[in-house]
Structure formats: C-alpha cells, structure tokens
Model the fold of this input.
Amino acid sequence: MITFDFNTYIKEKNLGKYEDKIKEIKKHFNSDNKLLDWYHIDKCISVEEIEQIKFVSSKVRDICDTFVVIGIGGSFMGAKAVIECLSSYFKKGKPEIIFAGNNLSGEYLMNLLTYLEDKNIIINVISKSGNTLETKVTFDLLYKFMQKKYDDDELKERIIITTDNEEGYLRSLVKEKGFISFNVPREIGGRFSVLSTVGLLPIAVMQKDFIGLLDGARKANIDMAIKYAVIRDILYREGKIIESFTYYEPKMTTFIEWLKQLFAETQGKNKKDILPISCSNTRDLHSLGQFYQEGNPIIFETVFGIKQDYNINTNIKEFTIDNINMIALDKVAKAHFKAGIESNIIYLDKLDAETLGELIYFFEIAAASGAYLLDVYPFDQPGVNEYKKLINEELK
Ligand code: PA5
Done:
C-alpha cells in the first residue's frame, strides 16, 4: 500500500484554482489519443504477449547463464529499476543480467566482451526506433561476437529483438534471420513503456512478479497523482525550480533515475520545467544536505519512505535500524521545512511488485498531468532528437 503525506511539510496551497485545469487533464486522459495507450494498461500489454513473455522467459532461464539486455533511455531504465528494487542487495540473480548499450565507453565494451567469453549468453536488444546509436553500436559488436560463438540455429534461440512491429533495422533482421521478437507498441513512448514488452520481458526473465506489477498499476490513485502534479506546479510557480527525489533505500537508485528521465523528457520543453535531481539518504545528508539546509532555497523534495522493519536492533534504546531510518526521514524533512524547503512524502508499506507497479503508474500520470499544466506536449522529446541528428550527421 502507498500513503501520501502532502500536508505535514508542504505549506497550504490553493488547489481550488486548479479545478478547471484538472477537468481538462482528465479529458486528455479519457480522449482517444493513441499516444495515451500507456494509460490503458491492457493496451500496454495483451494477454497473448503475457503468455509469450512467460514462455520465452522460462526458456531463457533454461538455456543461458548470462542475459544481456541492450538498450538505452526508456528501453532499459524501467526494467533495471524494477529488477533492482525487487532483488537482494548481494545475492546475484540467475541468470546474471547485464544492461549494456547505455554508454559509448570503449573500455566498458572491451571489458564486457572479455567477461562474456566463457559465458552461456542470450541477448535481448530493445529499441523502439531500431536506430539509436548506443544500442546499435553495442548490438552490432555483440552480434558479431555471438556469430563467432554460436551457429545460425543456436542464434535463433539466443537473440531476442524487441522493436517496432514493422519498421527499422532490427525488425528487418527479425524478418531475415527468424529471431524471436517482441513488438514495441508504436504509440507508447520509451519512458512510458516499462509495463509493455519492453520492460516486462527482462523483469520476467529475472523471475520478478510482472503480473503483480500490472495489478499494482491498475490500483494506482489517479486523483492523487493529479493532485501531486498540481502541488508541483504551484511550487514551480513559487520559484522552486528543482525537485529532489529523496530516498532512504539505496536499491531505489535506478528507480529514481527512471523518474528523472520520465519528468525531464516529458516536461522539460519550451524553456520551462522543474529540474529533477536525486538524493540518496542518509548518504547525501553528509554532502548535498548542507545545500538543502542553508543554500539557495530553489528546491522542493519528494521523499520516499519504506515502512517495512527488518527488526535489526541497534544499541540505541529499543530502536531498530529501520526505526532510525524513518526518524531520520521525518526529522530531515522537518529541518528542511524550517529552512523553506517543502517536502511531499510518499510512504510505501513495502517495496514489492504491486507497490512498484502502483508507483510507476502514479508517476506516469503525474508527469503527463504536469506537462499539461505547463502547457507543453508530454509525448515527444525534440531536444533528445536534436543531438541525435547532429551526431548522426557527423557519423554519416
Ligand atoms: O523515452 C524515450 O522515448 C527515449 O528515452 C527512448 O526510450 C530512448 O531514446 C531510446 O530510444 P529507442 O528505444 O528508439 O532506441
């Protein structure tokens, strides 16, 4: 379960003046705009695709010891976030999962190829466009490596392509070579695609409860997500131009990276928007904390607290370590509030698949709603396309 506290450390806001805008936002969500297909969970993923994911993920586990997911941005971040949130800090999953294709480091690729030398590998390359530079370069290299290691029949079991149903280089490879493939729904943008084949196949391979994730998403509190978007909008107009996603459970790190992408690409347009940053506490209390308390008060926080308690006793009175973590969350928010830094607090009962699904969908709604409030179009990323164009011109 998720509970929201948008009162204790948020000064009173006049939400009433947003009534008409909220009606407009709801109208957008209920329109037949295909780019809102992510809003209808059953359009993100079909019953047939769920069955295919179950079948293929179980085969992947039977065959390989190393599963390499190649993709960048929305094509890897959501899956990585969910898998890390639902995994032990130290126990390695089976198969081992490696996320490649999200950088252009020669050293990384050289080390990866050496590491994979004696591994039993399956690759899942994920790219909606099929043309993204980092993904393409990494896939081409690993494909050549796989061709040396395996014959054509083996490759048909070892290369899985998730891409557009009809277009692009990767789809043509599927047609030519007969590789296993999944379809990226054309209308669902990368950062909104974690609950589609894009995110769910890697999540299922790692035996994380992807059905629970979808169930959780269906339960998300849409009104609360819009309310959160409104509070952010008011804070922004009050001069709070930076939002810190502050968390007290380090395994949420990639989830917070996913959130940063979701908000930055959805809302950061026309010289507007809040800059999303992250803060991992209590570590960052010993670094960024100084700025939050006494620096330029242009920040507000959205804070995540997890209520589960592992009952690890400390030598401090009767407090467990989780008690102290929660006390830290509350007292830090209080101290920041005194310094003019307001905080929305989101409490999770525990970090399980259902709660994560709920959270993912909650933030997707909030990001799109926030874009409507800023009067920017949520579902493109012209800035990202601009630099891609310049690099591609140089590399032509
Ligand atoms: O949200 C988005 O649309 C982007 O972050 C994309 O996911 C990212 O650029 C990768 O694109 P593609 O899946 O086409 O390789």
